Amino acid sequence: MRYDALIIGGGHNGLVASFYLARRGLKVAVLERREIVGGASVTEELWPGIRISTGAYVLSLLRPRIINEMNLPENGLHVYNKDPGLFLPLGRKNLFIWNDIKRTQKEIEKFSKKDSLAYSKWIKFWDTFYDLADFFMLTPPVTISDVGDLLYRFKGSIDEENLSRIGRTFLQDARSFLDEFFESDEVKSALIEDSVVGTFASPSTPGTAYVLAHHVIGEVNGIKGMWGYVKGGMGGVTSAMARACEKMGVDIMTSTEVEEILVKNGEVAGVKTKDGRIIESKIVLSNADPKTTFLKLVNDVDEEIRKRVSALKSKGVSFKVVGYTEELPDFGNGKSLGPEHVASELIMPNVDYIERAYDDARVLGYSREPWLSINFQTSVDPTVALPGKHVFSIFGQYLPFNDRLDDMKEKIAEITLEKVREYAPNFKPVKYEVITPLDIKRRFGIWEGNIFHIDMTPDQLYIFRPALGMSRYKTPIKGLYLCGSGTHPGGGVTGAPGYNAAHAVLNDLNV
After folding, report:
1. For 425-469, what is each residue's pLDDT tens digit?
2. Do 273 and 280 form a contact (C-beta atoms < 8 A)?
3. How far apart are CA 339 and CA 330, in angstroms?
4. Domain Amine oxidase, which positions (predicted)?
C-alpha cells in the first residue's frame, strides 16, 4: 500500500493537514489508533443517551479561513454562541462577562467604576491582535526581528502605550498585565483564567500574558471574542472535517495504530502499524506530540535530537470531571435555566486563590482548592442528553502528571464536587467520571497528558516550538513533518498547525 502522504493521528490538525494536501491532488491517508476520529476533539457516549466532550469542550479559536475553505458548516458544523461567556459566583454580588461591552461594563460597575471604563480600553487593545491573528497563526513562526519589524509597521496607527503592551505580551506575566488595566480583584479574576489554562504556571509566571492572548483572539459565527458550544459536542468539529476530507479523497483509517515511522538513510519510507502492515510514503506528517514522535515512533533518532526533545516541558496539569445531573446548579438565582448556566462558571474568587492552587501543586502534587471552569452543554444543546438530564464538564487545575494518578481519582472527585457545592449546594451528579492527565495520556495518546502537547512558555513558542531546527514543521529527517499542537502556534482547536504544516509540505514539493 502506497500513498503520497500519511498523517499519523486523526485529530483536528491531522484532518486539516490531510484536507489541504488532498486538495492539491496528493493521495493521502489518515491513520487513527482509536475507533473514532477527532483526537482530543471528540464526543463520546459515556452512559446511554449521554454524550460528553471528553477532551476539548468549547470552540472559538478555529480559524475562519479553515472553516470556510473546508466548508465545515455545509459538512454539518453548527456552533451555538456562549453568551454570557463567563460567570463568577461571588455571593451577594456575582459577575457576568457578556459579549456586549456596555452590558459587561454595568456588571463591572458593581465592583469598580474605574474598571468599568477601563474595560472598553481592554477590548480595544485586543482588536489589534484580532487584526493580526492570521498573520501570527496561519504563517510559519515569526522571528524576534520579525516582531520588531511588525511593531515598527504599526507605529503611528497604534499609540505608543499599546504598542509597548503588544511587545511585552509575549514575555509578561498575566497578573501584572491585568494590573495595568484594572484595580478590582474580582474583575481581574474573571479575566485571568485563560492565562493559565493547560499550563503549569501561576498568573504571576512570565509568559502567561501570551497564553492569555492566545485564547482571546477567536470568534464564533463572525463575532469577535465569542466562544461557543458545538452542536452534538466537540466531535461535531472533527466529524465535519472528516466529511470534508473524504470528499477530497482522503482515506481515513480508524483502529489503525502506528507502531513505527520507517526511516531509511535519513529519509522517511512510510510507517509500520501495530498489526504488522507496512504503508509506504515519502511524506509522513505526525499529529502526535513531539515526544511521542521522536521518543516512541522513530527508532533511530540522532542523540542530539533525542536530548533536545526529551528536555521539552510537557507535564500535563489539567483534569476534568464530566457527567450529568437531573437539575441545574443553583448559584443563588434558582435552578431554572439562566444565563449563568450558559456561561463558563468560574470557581476562582480571586487571583491569589489561583496562586495558592499552583503552590499546592508544586509542593503536594495536587491543588487542595483547585480553580474550576464549569460548562453545561445542554444549556443550549439538548441533543447530547436524554430529556431532563443536564450534561456538565468541569475543567480544573492543578494536577501534575504522574503514573499514580489513578489512586488520586476519588480524592480529586471529592475535592472538586465539594468546591462546586460551596457555591451551588444542590450540585449532585447522577453519574460522573474523573479524567486525569494520566487518563488523557491513555485516552488521547498525549505524552504526560499535556493538552497543548508541550508547555506554551516563552522558551517553547514561535521559533522555539517545539525546538530550534524544527519550528517550521520540518524535522531533521527528510520527509517527516510535525503538524500537531506541539508546533506553532500551539494548543487549542485552531487548525493552524495542520494548515501550516500542509503548506510547508506543498512548498517543499513545489505543488
Report:
1. 999 999 999 999 999 999 999 999 999 999 999 999 989 999 988
2. no
3. 12
4. 14-496
